[in-house]
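Researcher: Good morning. I'm working through a list of sequences from a screen, and I'd like to move beyond sequence-only analysis. For each chain I'm collecting a predicted structure so we can compare shapes side by side. This is the next one on the list. No need for commentary yet; just the structure.
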Amino acid sequence: MIQSFFALLRGLYRDFEPLLNFGLACKIGKYRGPQRLFEGGIGRIERFERSFSHVRGECRGVRPEWNGIPRALPRCMFKNADGVRQWGSEKFALAVRPNPGLFGRMKWTWTGLRTWAVLGLLAGWIGCMTVPETGRRQFNLMSSGEEMQLGFSEFDKMKKQVPLNKDPKLNAMVERVGKRIAAVASPSMPEAQWEFVVFESKDANAFCLPGGKVGVYTGIFPITQTEEGLATVIGHEVAHAVARHGGERMSTAMALNVIGTLGGAAAAKSRYAELFNQLYAPVTQVGVALPHSRGQESEADRIGLLYMARAGYRPEAAVEFWQRFGEYNRRQGNQTPWFLRTHPLDDARVAELKQRMPEARAQFKAQ
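Model: Good morning. Structure tokens for this chain:
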């Protein structure tokens, strides 16, 4: 499915290349054919051959001949560099340098909007999945099998590169808490091959890779303090894996890269090309990627709270842990503005957990 999707993208890019380079090289004026994508004016044109050599000329506004959309290109009369009138061919990409502005007098017609809307809906349908527990619809182009293989591979690398903790009590506690969380999460991740490892590191962190590979750094134990605190951490990390946040992030990154590539191609011949190249990455990072990351963290907080409650750990312990974690962050002097953070502000996530507490208490089962 993934290969088919990207083959579709490659085909669309190839077929729509002349349009992305500012489209029809003819003035189509009042031409009302059902396959028209643009309505535009006369502008400077360039003819790009397969070898990328080009000649310049003026489009004379002859009615384009269509042999179907999107494969065939419009055929129009123009003068080449030697003043010879020639017909454009579907072997060439004919590009308008519009006058004035980014799109000149060209504008999207209903046919063009409908075409791209259908393609967007198709991509969304291919990658649309539902997150367990929350019911949120997510965009994920990766299969669970692909995610698991990546998780297994990365976990094996980590075990070779990062020292393992040998403390039997710490390892036993992580194994005990981890298995209780895994027991309530397994219905949503039945193919998981659970493994719990304690890594020797000062980082106050933990993770759960796709496939149930859980790692806990020794630097987090002074903050967890109790098994309930550890259950908060493991529940949160397992929730990331169950919700397939890793695959979703990769899919979002791929989509942004494709959009950036197509947008860059469309802007390449305009005076806004440099501005687009400078702004696209930071704007999508602040406006899309970081808010998306914070949303995933909040979702993992919610799902992890339910998991620890079902596993028999007091859900109130989650609030206590995140308060301690917030104090730890303040001591570290993290002054990053909220809109540049990958995680929600500590006070905000504590407040949200308190709002979720009635739902978690209703599912608490003491063991």
